[in-house]
Specification:
The protein folds into three domains: about 160 residues, FAD/NAD(P)-binding domain (3-Layer(bba) Sandwich), CATH 3.50.50.60; about 130 residues, FAD/NAD(P)-binding domain; about 45 residues. The protein is about 30% helix and about 25% strand. It has ten helices and 21 strands. The strands form six sheets. A five-stranded parallel sheet has the order 5-2-1-9-18, with helices on one face. The longest helix is centred in the last third of the chain and has 20 residues. The model has no long low-confidence stretch (mean pLDDT about 90).
């Protein structure tokens, strides 16, 4: 019997589990390896931080889907991947073999690397990844804010960092919020028009943006590359996730960012029995779910080109949001309503399955 191991509970794997729940494949052993039985949907984290949704609203329970799909679930995280011997070792020392492997761990934050770049981050910083740990600790920040006005710094430059800064300001209007966006500033915006809109929104909500680099975190302050020291009670380390460090020794072909180099089928260019998606992959969202289903059914996989664009939201204010798509952008409360509707529909789809 062939063995397909799904490493990580990212969105692609959740889509696959949902599909398999309706029709289980025969002749294949499926195993999901993930550290948590509950998946937090990243699209709703900002609304949770803002106090618009409870944590339960943002959760997808994997167990019902696993049972319906006939998928074995193992609690754990990878420590070593050896594609030559087709084995995976977890952090607890256990080892598992595979015929096919699909990697969808989502974005990760390499704490050792971040500590080297900004000493003190491990001791004083609140890391956004994994989301499960961040969401568990966020209520402690709101409790602390009930006793005094906090000085909060969001250290990051991607759209999630921007959305978190805005959500924190909404939840804690008395707090001083600073976004330390790095030397490039808000260059993460899809277009210059979007960047201008985001700058105006941040200014409207009195969020300070520093085009500086964090070089250290100490008690009550953040050290910047310019030599300045930013007074800070809660430094939130929101740097964009990186590829997992264990990929480097896996013998898989990687791109310049350390991610799995993929062909147009979503397979590793060096080891076609390994698939990958999301932040660990070199291509922008190949249709991995379809090809994994084809693989399980014994059909040939299909070539898929990257989608030309996708909806991107940044929530702000009283349920307002900014929408960008293929060079177009719109903002307002109706966009916020659309964002909420799409996210709640996404969550309910998996709860219904």
């Amino acid at each position: 019997m062939k063995n397909l191991v799904l490493l990580g509970a990212g969105q692609t794997h959740i889509d696959l589990l949902s599909t398999l729940a309706a029709k289980q494949p025969s002749g294949v052993q499926l195993t999901l390896i993930a550290p948590y039985p509950l998946h937090i949907y990243v699209g709703m984290v900002a609304s949770f931080v803002a106090g618009q949704h409870t944590l339960e609203d943002c959760l997808i329970d994997l167990e019902p889907m696993l049972q319906k799909a006939g998928v074995r679930w193992l609690t754990g995280s990878p420590a070593l991947l050896d594609v030559k011997s087709a084995t995976l070792r977890l952090t607890d020392g256990s080892t598992y073999g595979f015929d096919w492997l699909s990697i969808d761990t989502g974005a990760l934050q390499d704490r050792q690397q971040i500590e080297a770049l900004m000493p003190g981050a491990r001791e004083h910083g609140l890391f956004v990844r994994p989301l499960e740990a961040f969401c568990a600790l966020w209520p402690k920040v709101t409790e602390l804010a009930a006793s005094r006005a906090l000085r909060i710094a969001v250290l990051g430059h991607d759209l999630l960092s921007i959305e978190l800064a805005l959500s924190i300001k909404q939840r804690l209007p008395g707090a001083s919020v600073t976004l330390v966006a790095g030397p490039a500033g808000l260059a993460c915006a899809p277009t210059p028009v979007d960047e201008k809109r985001i700058v105006n929104i941040l200014r409207q909500y009195r969020i300070t943006v520093l085009a500086d680099l964090t070089v250290g975190i100490e008690a009550q302050q953040v050290r910047l590359a310019s030599g300045a020291r930013l007074a800070c009670d809660v430094p939130i380390v929101a740097n964009a996730g990186s590829a997992p460090v264990w990929l480097a020794s896996s013998a898989l072909a990687l791109d310049v960012h350390g991610r799995v180099a993929l062909d147009a089928f979503g397979r590793s260019v060096s080891h076609p029995n390994v698939f990958a998606a999301s932040e660990v992959a070199s291509r922008a969202k190949p249709a991995l779910t379809e090809n994994l289903l084809a693989l399980l059914a014994g059909r040939p996989v299909r070539r898929h080109e990257s989608a030309p664009g996708h909806l991107s939201f940044v929530a702000y204010g009283d349920r307002c949001a900014l929408l960008t798509w293929r060079g177009f952008s719109m903002q307002g409360r109706w966009v916020g309503w659309l964002k909420d509707w799409l996210e709640e529909r996404y969550i309910q789809r998996y709860r219904r399955d």
